[in-house]
Amino acid sequence: MLKTKNNLINIAYTLEGNQNNPVLVFSNSLGTNHTMWDGQCEILKENYFIVRYDTRGHGESDVPNTPSSIEELGNDVLNLMDELGIATFHFCGLSIGGLTGQWLGLNAQNRLEKLIIANTAMKIGAFENWNDRIETVRENGLSSIIEGTRKIWFSKSFAETKPPLVNTILDDFIKTPIEGYISCCAVVRDADFTNQIEKITTPTLIFTGTNDIITTVLDGIEMTKKIKNSEMVELNAAHISNIEDGHLFTTKLLKFLKK
Q: Taking the chain, what is the end-to-end CA distance rounded to the nearest angstrom?
């Protein structure tokens, strides 16, 4: 992977496709890395110049020494785009990546062509629950929450029929640096766009999962109501919908981008 050179936090990234095509940026969820988008990129790289990066504290990106903020995650994207000489781009993020997308939609609308936010919400979870998770992981490591994560990320039927795929993704989860994970837990804990999201004007596609118990279909409906130029797609999936219902995710994403 390549790495940014000028940031205080260096971000690892990959480039795929023809650089003369429209730019599409993918942002991973908490506890994953850029490879979660492999299924989408195999198809989309034919028509888009794809930038995938590891969110700070994840994959091969640097691990911050302190809790991060959603503003820092958003600026990581903008700094990377500046370094690559990319003025405008499409952005697709899932979960914490969706929070990053909302921040960009509010603070960098002039840089966005289209916005895709998946399995996310204006506010994800309760403040106290995130603090509890941070303490659990700090004391007992990520292995202590792996089974709970499996149940949140994937529906029972998918986990039972696709065990090698699910286990590969959870193996990456375990490899996430603990301080990086904790730092981004703080991001999700503190980010709240409830009173701002209606200011987003970028054309927006919102993905939800029927079996997602963390960022629910109702969360998606509320975002769709508030973002005027938006539409929602409900997938037969839990939280990591782009993998569990990958074909429909990619099909709907491509259709939206081509509009």
A: 32
Q: How far is CA 132 from the centre of its chain?
A: 22
Residue 135: count other Cβ atoms within 10 Å of its Cβ.
11
Q: SS3 of 191, please?
A: coil
Write down the pTM of the prediction.
0.97
The CB-side HSE value for 121 (13 A sphere, CA atoms) comes to: 18
Going by DSSP bridges, is the β-strand pair 230-235/204-209 parallel, antiparallel, or unpaired? parallel
How far apart (Å, rounded) are the C-alpha atoms in residues 232 and 223?
Answer: 9
- Per the document, the length of the chain is 259
> Would you place residue 66 in the very low, low, confident or very high pLDDT band (cuts 50, 70, 90)?
confident
Domain residue limits at 131: 2-258
Q: What CATH code is carried by the domain that includes residue 141?
A: 3.40.50.1820
What are the tens digits of pLDDT across the range 16-53? 999 999 999 999 999 999 999 999 999 999 999 999 99
Q: For the chain, count helices (H), then strands (E).
A: 11, 8
Q: How many domains does the chain have?
A: 1
The full DSSP string for 64-122 is PSS---HHHHHHHHHHHHHHHT---EEEEEETHHHHHHHHHHHH-GGGEEEEEEES--S
Q: How many CB atoms lie within 10 A of CB 172?
A: 17
